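Re: that chain you flagged

S.,

Sorry for the slow reply, it's been a week of failed gels. I finally had a moment to sit down with the sequence you sent. For the record, here it is as I used it:
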Amino acid sequence: MVAYNISLAPPLRKPARPATRPQGFARGTLVRTIFGQRPVERLMAGDLLLDTDGQLVTLRALRQVRVEPEDLVRIAPGEAAPGLERALIVGADQKLALRDWRTDLIYGSGVMACAAQMVDGRSLRQLKVARQLFQLEVGSDCVIHANGLPALLRGSAQGAQHGGQRLGQVFGDQAGADLARGLDMQPGARRCGLGHRHLACHQPGDQARQHIA
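Prediction finished late last night. Pasting the structure tokens below so you have them in one place:
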């Protein structure tokens, strides 16, 4: 005789990770303002920031959130983060101007990508301790310098309209030209001007984004 154990209990499942992971910058991150570089924790609503083109950006609000280690990424200065002056800690979904062999293969240069997508265990790695992050709210999309590294801030209005889905490029003229040639072959790509730089935007599902995991 063969006995079977039958359970009516539902199978155990790991809790699903939230669809959106945190953005923002850790305490001590330097942001350019009209009065020079200031730590992010000392900013206040109404402060005037400077974007990568030197244009004024009004800070609408500053939020402080506690983030668990699995949603934190530390970026060290090096080839993966051109322009980064000192180590930077951000939320997993914070978009930064980064590059590695994958971006070089697909674009021929760096791209604006989520920090978590570019973790390699060396230049970019996850932290082991929870931290407080500061989230900057602005009226429209802009790119600022965070410790010298270009970082994308999602506008409060445009973020809702586009669902927060965008990849971009914020590099010099030659790199922008190289990227533009590559984007001509990418479906769904469009270009947005950022002064003397170029911002390449992709919608979800684009082939390029699927390859940058």
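What I noticed first: Residues 173-183 form the longest helix (11 residues).

Talk soon,
D.
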